[in-house]
Design a protein that fits this description.
By secondary structure, this protein is mainly alpha-helical. The protein contains 9 helices and 7 strands; from the N terminus they run βαββββαββααααααα.
Length: 380
């Protein structure tokens, strides 16, 4: 990777410094050095450069866009100190017109990392940030585009495996008779796959499946950078996702057949809603390239609230309370999807595609579960 640059000016000095620290860690993970220059108008200008890149004599911003380290020694290039009447290297830093990207503005000085080279032909992930919004949207390095393809390719395979394993769990094997109780009090005898029946009749087995999924997810995260093993772990988590959700999907279909659910086809409608939300969130993050790191503390706090409420809902048999928890959980899952998508797009070190795909598939599972719970709620 040749390098990248950003202007960070969110209006919040603490958040600006936090973002600079994130970029410093990202640059170090990519084997680069990060130069930081504080802007007189607020915020920072940062540029990551390869450790072997020349640190002196680069052409100014007024030069044609070239790669990093592009022939700085050629005299015809407007280099350091050339055309002093232009706001180039050596111009007074207090002039506000120096801080626009693409105008006749140039950044120089030694604060935090030496002189800067010309802007790269393909900007860093997310473009240049001004006030938290990306300017020059769509400009990403070829390395990040390739990384995104890898992450979303793994996510597609993982989702397909989860759906297939769930389908097999409710279709293969023998069936047993199971008594379903409608909201009207009527009892209905249905044939249920043996695996689903066992999980429905034994709450401990159902909770055990969730616990196994939780442990497997932690294990897959721990080995996400171990080549070969990481892919196997991701597929194992995907299989458990499908099997763990199979009883809920089957019950939703049974009660829908009795006309006892909010949606006439809860599974179909849930798939449609999850797909729409995922496409909308992904498109929003890719088009705007906003910085969603400010959501981290809020999402972390929300996770503990919803997790505690889910445990409480197992003992408090209240339809209203369960719907409230499911609604809050759906919003939280969508928030995690937005946060993770923005992180992958902007600040990911691009060294853990399996881990990033794992984070997305787990949040998709949570979103599916919460929305399905809403769709299968009692309509009466």
């Amino acid at each position: 990777m040749s390098g990248w640059e950003f202007t960070i000016n969110t209006g919040n000095p603490d958040h600006d410094r936090y973002t600079v620290d994130q970029y410093r860690r990202t640059a170090e993970a990519q084997g680069m050095t990060l130069g930081v220059q504080q802007l007189p108008t607020g915020g920072y200008f940062v540029r990551a450069m390869a450790a072997s890149a020349p640190q002196a004599g680069p052409p100014g911003y007024g030069a044609p866009q070239q790669g990093w380290g592009a022939q700085p020694q050629q005299p015809q290039q407007p280099g350091y100190g050339a055309q002093p009447q232009q706001p180039g290297y050596g111009a007074q830093p207090q002039q506000p017109q120096q801080h626009g990207y693409g105008a006749q503005a140039q950044y120089g000085g030694q604060q935090g990392g030496g002189a800067w080279g010309p802007p790269p032909a393909a900007a860093a992930p997310g473009g240049v940030l001004v006030g938290g919004v990306a300017a020059g949207a769509g400009a990403m390095s070829t390395d990040r585009i390739a990384y995104l393809r890898k992450v979303y390719g793994l996510l597609t395979v993982s989702a397909a495996v989860a759906i297939l394993s769930g389908f097999l769990a409710i279709t293969l094997g023998g069936t047993v008779k199971f008594t379903a109780h409608a909201s009207t009090g009527k009892k209905v005898i249905v044939l249920v796959p043996a695996l689903v029946a066992a999980m429905l009749e034994n709450r401990g087995l159902m909770y055990g499946a969730f616990g196994l999924l939780f442990v497997a997810t932690l294990g897959a995260s721990a080995v996400s950078k171990v080549k070969g093993l990481n892919f196997v772990a991701l597929m194992a988590v995907s299989i458990l996702l499908g099997v763990e959700l199979a009883p809920m999907v089957f019950v939703a279909q049974v009660f829908a057949g009795m006309g006892d659910t909010l949606s006439a086809s809860p599974v179909r409608d849930t798939f449609a809603m999850v797909g729409s939300i995922f496409v909308g969130i992904t498109g929003y993050a890719f088009v705007t390239k906003k910085d969603f790191s400010y959501m981290r503390a809020m999402l972390s706090m929300g996770f503990f609230v919803v997790f505690t409420a889910c445990i409480l809902a197992a003992f408090v048999h209240s339809e209203a309370f369960s719907l409230a928890v499911a609604s809050a959980g759906a919003v939280l899952s969508a928030g995690f999807l937005l946060y993770n998508t923005g992180r992958i797009l902007r600040t990911s070190a691009m060294d853990d595609p399996v881990g990033d795909a794992l984070g997305l598939i787990v949040q998709l599972r949570n979103l599916f579960m919460f929305i399905l719970r809403i769709m299968m709620s009692n309509r009466r």
